[in-house]
TrEMBL record, chain A:
It is found in: Cell membrane. It comes from the Bacteria. The lineage of its organism: Bacteria, Bacillati, Bacillota, Bacilli, Lactobacillales. GO terms for cellular component: plasma membrane. This is ABC transporter domain-containing protein. GO terms for biological process: peptide transport; protein transport; transmembrane transport. The keyword ATP-binding applies.
TrEMBL record, chain B:
Gene3D superfamilies: MetI-like. Coiled coil: none annotated. It comes from Liquorilactobacillus ghanensis DSM 18630. This is Oligopeptide ABC superfamily ATP binding cassette transporter, membrane protein. GO terms for cellular component: plasma membrane. Residues 95-305 form the ABC transmembrane type-1 domain. GO terms for biological process: transmembrane transport. It holds the Pfam family BPD_transp_1. Belongs to the binding-protein-dependent transport system permease family.
Automatic annotation (TrEMBL), chain C:
This is ABC-type dipeptide oligopeptide nickel transport system, ATPase component. One of its GO terms (molecular function) is ATP binding. It comes from Liquorilactobacillus ghanensis DSM 18630. GO terms for cellular component: plasma membrane. Residues 7-257 form the ABC transporter domain. GO terms for biological process: peptide transport.
């Protein structure tokens, strides 16, 4: 059984307009997203701005109300949970935010910030609590002198590590990391990514890693999903997505990443322009009339693609043939 | 745009109804009665009870409220117990005086505040800016009525430059004579009022100009080779004046509130003075009418601000 | 060769006044920008790359800034110019593209007016000609419906469209030099690719020179001809894009390249540069500024006063420490 399973998740935001300010339309920020995350794995959620990836993450942790669908945590639908069970879920699912400055209360000392989830979920005496906070700081490579400082006294990378320490405090099973390194410089980014991996190795935590950076996601994730206009267009293992992308959107996204490879830049540019041309020609085939991606079709053990109906039926046949 | 305005106006209707109920009930809850001080002091309680009864003051509150509203729609705001005159007439005369004084104060305010705020923002940290800031802080610290009383004492009584009471001198005659006399009477209260109300605008405008100065679009303009003067004219001032323009509607609120102080200290026969007098005489009909009027004017001021903002700011205009 | 040089920066240093004292944000910069060339300036935040750009553009408040050295553009030293002379160059001969396309446009002005404004000060065109040229420019930067866009306000456009408008403004007077400060940082990768293609295309058509300021090594590798790597206000390595990426020498360049997540690094720890970038106030006066971040390299390997060393045609490295530099076997500096 997977740790968490998101089934047909929908988050719609109403648009109000007209004279009576009635709901006249909806923004389908997330429209039928399904995925599973296994214990101890990192699942990447990749998309461009406005794709709905952040909303998905916020809905999973409960910061956004789902319009429809289910979120099953260890097989239980958390939407139906009683408050007490809900508390258990909140303790086990934590979040790391992109903007480390605004997600840490500027008026509170680091000790209080990190101790807050402990106080919410575990009743510890002050001595044990302090030891625990020091342990947590140590996990993210910060010394005891950090305890009595305020967030603004730290660099961006250090603050992000404090955010990680806070998220790890309650020994969660799943951490939702929303663009955790996109505001950081390259060398600091490397450090934060290393800490995330180290924590996973030591505590067996799973990550839902939300990012627009395909390079970082490749480094971090075992499996990933590509999101576009509120739907998943492709889900698969790292190898599936990076080496055998099938959806035109995924192909285009991958080609657009600038590589640190000077020797082949001419060829890469040609390839990118070729894919872009195909994308422009074929994009209507890959999306329905409302501009939404088609349902995912399984094409191999691990690989799912939102192929147009015609291609999908062909693919299914071959997939069955393989079986 | 029209739809938005219309909707805002419609929303105002329940607001006004609620306001009127509130105003009415508050007036009812005030202690005392309107007759004790105004009739023969030897009159007994029985006589007062009788007067209360025939004036409908013992009816249930909703009945009184309903009567009041019905009369309101007939333009009948009731009779002032104190002045023995119809409230509509009473307010009408004074509203005109208040209108002129408020308008004059507003014009003076902007004439003083705009150049000051723009100058202070542009030459931030220089000596004139420091002086302007000290002026705003000091004025901000002093209560409004103290400014008025001290101003009245110095310029009115000690220096004898301005009249100290009334809205027009008894000897004024002829068209231009009347206007000049009115203007002369408004000068000191208007100036003192403006002195006070500039503070907010100066501070606000100054910080808007400083923000705009450091904004990226000003950097873009510099990178275009636009001369400094033109940058201030076309980008910085224009953009910083936008919220100030919207402020215009709200400033009506401030002026009306201020008129209560100004008019009672200068014995200027406007709505503010009437209001204060009516309270001390428990003249319910006048108080309720005035509070309702002030309330409605404040609502209109807010509406006006929103409309101005909607017209000048394209980000809000597109609907 | 020399007549192809558009911009010649000699010993340029810029200091900012912080709490009454001046601190150097960039020091002793020497750079040439030639026609038909994209020079990338790459470094992390706080390295001075943006200060360099804004110094060339003269966008600093003279009350709190001090620049020494020379910035020779087409034979004239920009640092010696007064505002009037500078304004004849800015927008006309040097155009600038900014990082955040939303805040770089005036929210209260129509797109057309923001484009024609630059022509108001540098051309003799009539209003009608200016409007036509604005539409032409919008077309050139790849906007599908120029008439419509010209009438719109910035908030009505997408991020990519706004950046195209910024580019249209920058190239309106066909400048010889284009300075792009993190032009794609705020954009999605697919839009980034289009914008970089556009900058490249404009540069080739106008035979102009481009200074591309970025923190993104991938963008540099895919776009630049020449590269200058900056660290703590100094250029630490400079060369052609091939030299920098295929034969990086300075420890900082090599460290940066090593901390990029690569296709084959999936299961490895990423390399972390020990320590922090020194702040302006803490900048060491002497010695190699990068030395504290490679503590295992003996101090004898560093020069006392590090200078740039010419290694091969066009390839320069600061300090001699690169000769003795090797990465530690077990990654150091996970803890800071």
């Amino acid at each position: 059984m997977s740790l968490i399973e998101v089934k047909d998740l929908q988050v719609h935001f109403p648009i109000r307009s007209g004279f009576w300010n009635r709901i006249t339309d909806q923004v389908k920020a997330v429209d039928g997203v399904s995925f599973k995350i296994n214990a101890g794995e990192t699942f990447g959620l990749v998309g461009e701005s406005g794709s709905g990836k952040t909303t998905t993450g916020r809905a999973v942790v409960g910061l956004e109300k789902a319009t429809g669908g289910q979120i099953l945590y260890q097989g239980e639908n958390i939407a139906l949970n009683k408050p007490k069970e809900r508390l258990n879920y909140n303790q086990n699912v934590q979040m790391i935010f992109q903007d480390s400055l605004s997600s840490l209360n500027p008026r509170k000392r680091i000790e209080t910030i990190i101790a807050e989830p402990l106080r919410n979920f575990q009743k510890l005496d002050s001595e044990t609590e302090k030891i625990r906070v020091l342990q947590l700081l140590d996990i993210v490579g910060l010394g005891p002198d950090a305890l009595y400082k305020y967030p603004h006294q730290f660099s961006g990378g250090q603050r992000q590590r404090i955010g990680i320490a806070r998220a790890v405090a309650t020994n969660p099973k799943l951490i939702i990391a929303d663009e955790p390194v996109s505001a950081l410089d390259l060398s600091v980014q490397a450090q934060v990514l290393n800490f995330l991996k180290k924590i996973q190795r030591e505590f067996g935590v799973s990550y839902l890693f939300i990012s627009h950076d395909l390079g970082v996601v490749r480094h971090m994730c075992d499996r990933l999903a590509i999101m576009n206009h509120g739907r998943l267009v492709e889900v698969g293992s790292r190898d599936d997505i990076y080496n055998h992308p099938l959806h035109i959107y995924t192909q285009r996204l991958l080609e657009a990443i600038p590589q640190v490879d000077v020797r082949h830049r001419q060829e890469r540019q040609q390839e990118r322009l070729r894919i872009e041309k195909i994308y422009q020609e074929q994009k209507n085939d890959y999306y329905d009339q409302a501009g939404m991606a088609y349902p995912l079709v399984q094409v191999s053990q691990t690989h799912f693609v939102a192929l147009p109906p015609q291609a999908a039926s062909k693919r299914k046949l071959t997939a069955q043939g393989v079986d | 745009m029209w739809k938005v305005i219309l909707r805002r106006v419609l929303i105002m209707i329940p607001e006004i109804i609620l306001l009127s109920i509130l105003v009415f009930l508050l007036a009812k809850m005030m202690p005392g009665d309107p007759f004790t001080g105004s009739i023969n002091p030897r009159a007994g309680t029985a006589e007062i009870h009788h007067l209360m009864r025939i004036n409908g003051l013992y009816d249930p509150w909703y009945q009184q409220y309903w009567n009041w509203i019905v009369h309101l729609f007939h333009g009948n705001l009731g009779q002032s117990y104190q002045y023995h005159e119809s409230v509509a007439n009473l307010i009408g005369q004074r509203a005109e005086n208040t209108l002129w004084l408020s308008l004059f104060t507003m014009v003076l305010t902007y004439l003083i505040a705009l150049p000051m705020g723009m100058y202070a923002g542009r030459h931030e940290g220089k000596l004139p800016d420091t002086i302007i800031r000290i002026y705003t802080y000091v004025t901000y610290c002093i209560p409004f009525f103290v400014i008025l009383v001290v101003g009245l004492w110095i310029f009115g009584y000690v220096l004898n430059w301005f009249p100290t009471t009334g809205s027009i001198s008894a000897t004024a005659s002829g068209f231009s004579g009347t206007i000049l006399s009115r203007f002369y009477h408004m000068l000191l209260p208007g100036l003192l009022g403006a002195l006070f109300s500039t503070v907010n605008i100066v501070q606000y405008l100054r910080s808007e100009v400083i923000d705009a100065k450091r904004s990226d679009y000003v950097k873009t303009a510099r990178a275009k080779g636009v001369p400094e003067k033109a940058i201030y004219r076309h980008h910085i001032f224009r953009n910083s004046l936008l919220p100030i323009a919207a402020f215009g509607g709200y400033s009506i609120t401030g002026l009306l509130n201020g008129s209560i102080f100004t008019e009672s200290i200068f014995s200027y026969p406007g709505m503010g003075l009437l209001f204060v007098n009516s309270i001390s005489y428990r003249d319910y009909t006048v108080i309720t009418a005035l509070v309702l009027l002030f309330g409605i004017l404040n609502l209109l001021g807010t509406l006006l601000s929103d409309i101005i903002l909607g017209i000048v700011d394209p980000r809000i205009r597109i609907k | 060769m020399s007549d192809q040089t558009l911009l010649n920066i000699k010993n340029l240093s810029t200091s900012f006044k912080i709490e009454g004292e001046f601190y150097e944000a960039i020091s002793q910069i020497n750079l040439q920008v030639k026609r038909d060339q994209i020079l990338a300036i790459v470094g992390e935040s706080g390295c001075g790359k943006s200060t360099l750009a804004t110094t060339v553009m003269g966008l600093h408040d003279p009350a709190i800034t001090k620049s020494t050295g020379q910035v020779v553009f087409e034979g004239q030293d920009l640092l010696k110019m007064n505002e009037v002379q500078y304004n004849k160059i800015r927008g006309a001969k040097i155009g600038m593209i900014f990082q955040d396309p939303l805040s770089a446009l005036n929210p209260l002005k129509k797109i057309k007016d923001q484009i024609t404004e630059v022509m108001d000060y540098h051309t003799q065109l009539t209003e009608k000609q200016k409007s036509e040229r604005a539409l032409e420019l919008l077309q050139d930067v790849g906007i599908d419906n120029p008439q419509r866009t010209a009438r719109q306000f910035p908030h009505e456009l997408s991020g990519g469209m706004r950046q195209r408008v910024i580019i249209a403004i920058a190239i309106a007077c066909k400048p010889d030099l284009l300075i792009a400060d993190e032009p794609t940082t705020a954009l999605d990768v697919t839009i980034q690719a289009q914008i970089l293609d556009l900058i490249r295309k404009i540069q080739q058509e106008n035979h102009s020179g481009v200074i591309l300021i970025t923190h993104d090594l991938g963008v540099v590798a895919q776009t630049a001809d020449e590269v200058a790597v900056m660290y703590a206000g100094q250029i630490v390595e400079q060369g052609t894009v091939q030299q920098i990426f295929e034969n990086p020498l300075h420890p900082y360049t090599r460290s940066l390249l090593r901390s990029v997540p690569q296709a084959d690094s999936e299961n490895d720890e990423l390399y972390v540069i020990a320590g922090n970038v020194p702040s302006l106030q803490q900048m060491p006066k002497d010695g190699d500024r990068f030395a504290p971040r490679i503590p295992w390299v003996p101090s004898s390997a560093h020069e006392k006063h590090p200078t740039m060393h010419q290694l091969s045609a066009g390839h320069q490295v600061r300090c001699t420490c690169y000769q003795n530099f090797n990465f530690p076997v077990a990654p150091k500096g996970v803890r800071q």
